């Protein structure tokens, strides 16, 4: 088993929380894991990217080569396109359809979405709307994780358990909101 994942978005969107949940689930399965993070110019508003490599055998490097990513999980559609050169031919993109317009020359959203729709394995969701409608507006990132579950090759229950461990110290309400968000994402990708 080997899964190379690129997580990307904008600072403050919860990319590193997704990485923590996936990493926790993988470590609980006694899998090897390596992670590298790149933060943008500002904590909120700059681009954030994380390479996450999971394997049943030892991993030599924490960086994913071009054409080597099995999955790109993106909180923002333009960021999904930015990392497209890293996606393998049969890789998956799971992305939010809602832009985070943080630059004056942000490309036309329709062009970005059409580019993504041309690819064979894409799940594009309005996670912000789904999160708001479900009463879990701060868990949009976990909705995206739920939509990515099958592409990641991690059992759904393992991700639930990881959420309980990662967010447990924040209280039952936070755990419940994130479990609910995970289920929303899983249902949306069917």
Give structural notes.
It is a single chain. A hairpin with a 7-residue loop joins strand 2 and strand 3 (47-55). The protein has helices at 15-28, 77-82, 109-117, 127-133, 140-152, 156-167, 172-188; strands at residues 2-10, 32-39, 47-55, 69-74, 87-96, 122-125. Strands 2-3-1-4-5-6 form a 6-stranded mixed β-sheet. The radius of gyration is 15 Å and the shape is globular. The chain has 190 residues and is α/β, with parallel strands linked by helices. The mean pLDDT is 92. Helix content is 41%, strand content 24%. The two termini are 23 Å apart.
Helix content: 40-55%
How would a textbook summarize the main sheet?
Answer: 6 strands, mixed
- SS-based class: alpha/beta
Q: Please mark out the parts with pLDDT under 50 across 5 or more consecutive residues, or reply none.
A: none
What is the helix/strand order?
Answer: EHEEEHEHEHHHH
Strand content: 15-25%
What is the count of β-strands? 6
The strand line-up of the biggest sheet is: 2-3-1-4-5-6
Oligomer, anyone?
Answer: single chain
Task: Provide mean pLDDT, rounded.
Answer: 92
Gross geometry: globular
Write down the Rg. 15 Å
- Spatial separation of the terminal alpha carbons: 23 Å
Summarize the entry for a quick read.
The protein has 190 residues and is an alpha/beta fold. The chain has helices spanning 15-28, 77-82, 109-117, 127-133, 140-152, 156-167, 172-188; strands spanning 2-10, 32-39, 47-55, 69-74, 87-96, 122-125.
